[in-house]
Amino acid sequence: MQVKPLLGQHHVSAITANAKENYRFYTKVLGLRLVKKSINQDDTSVYHLFYADERGNPGTDLTFFEIPHAGTTYHGTNSISLTSLRVESDEAISYWKKRFEEFAVEHDEIATKYGRKTIAFRDFEGQRLELVSDETNHGVLGGKPWDKSPVPVEYGIIGLGPVKLTVAQPEITAKILTDVMGYREKDSYQSNLNNHPPIRVFETGEGGTGGEIYLEERADLQSERPGRGSVHHVAFRVESEEELKKWVDYLKQLRLPNSGFVERYYFRSLYFREPNGILFELATDGPGFEGDESFEHLGENLSLPPYFENQRAEIEAKLKPLDTKE
């Protein structure tokens, strides 16, 4: 490869139809910190909300585009079908089971997956999520939960865990992961569905929960029809802008259609679709979320990248007010 291996997950971006309820669930129930209330830079009429650890360290962000008229998601292939979130210990998984019961969150029983304690759950729109214990994990370090969260720090979410891709033709996605993106195919584990192929495990960088991708083959399903509660894209970590520009050149040499370099202000990006149609993003670790707000006040006000400031009045007029200071 002419580029350095990717460092692991950067963020996952999903779709919600209700920013207010989304904010309540991810901050008051899951205890994540809203580190940035911004806009979808490709459609400034809708919010882009960033939830993460205490300061939005790379690898800890779960983000949402608000699309108020988003329809129902019909689950299927060529999709990001599960987002997992890391916690420090098996004890934390037990804590979360009780918390889900207390807040009437739809959830499964505690299970062991790939040697780790997990608990799968859904948000109010059916977003497919799972908590995974880092008790026996080695690899990419997690983040640091916000000490003002309603969830005790020792049980707090510390970042993104493995992300599952569900496809009809796994070999073409596997080839992109290994031959283009530098992932290593590490292992597999048995699907909990009868008579289905094992789910393949790929890892990058230092590996572990923060550097794994799961690849599931489902030839029995049609393509997913996304809506509220679905995932829009997954982003992977690149250490610097300089390295990202090498990726731009690298994909060009491979003749892989891509967005080219994209300025997102909080990080720099590059987008492309793997052959099954799932949208991948490569994103830099910096600059981060404190360029336009102090650490103490992250997420409290509507933040616009400088190149949108001259449109602030027009943008604010289109957005439904969302109080994030409470």
Automatic annotation (TrEMBL):
UniProt KW keywords: Dioxygenase, Oxidoreductase
Pfam families cross-referenced by the UniProt entry: Glyoxalase (PF00903)
Keyword Iron-sulfur: no
Signal sequence region: none
Sequence ranges assigned to domain VOC in this UniProt record: 8-134, 159-285
InterPro entries found in the cross-reference section: Extradiol_RC_dioxygenase (IPR052537), Glyas_Bleomycin-R_OHBP_Dase (IPR029068), Glyas_Fos-R_dOase_dom (IPR004360), VOC_core (IPR037523)
Transmembrane segments: none
GO molecular function: dioxygenase activity
Domain of life: Bacteria
The protein, known as: Ring-cleaving dioxygenase
